[in-house]
Amino acid sequence: MALLNHPPVPVADGVWRITRGFPLKINVFLVREGDGVAVFDAGHKPMGPVVRAAANALGGATRVVVGNAHADHRGGARGIGAPVHCHADERADVEGDGGVHYFDYDLLPLLARPLTPRLMASWDDGPLEVAATLAEGDRIGDLEVIHLPGHGPGCIGLWRAADRLALSNDCFALFDPALPRAGRPRIPHPAFNWSTERCGESIAKLAALELAQGYTFAVPAGSAPREAIRRPLPATGPYMIAGYRPGVELRLVRNPHFREWSPAAQPAGNPDVIVYRFGAVLDDALTAIQRGSADWVLNHGAVPADRRRELRTRYASQTHTALLPGIFYASLNTRVPPFDDVRVRRALNYAVDRGLLARTFDALPTCQVIPPQLPGYSPYCPYTRGPTRSGVWIGPDLAKARRLIAASGTAGMKVTFVSDAATPKARTSSRSCAGSATGHRRVPVPGRRYGQTISDSRNRVQISGGGWDAEYPAASSSSGVSCSRRRLDTTASTSCSASRTSSASSAPASRTMAGSSIMEARAAAS
Question: What's the pTM?
Answer without folding.
Answer: 0.47
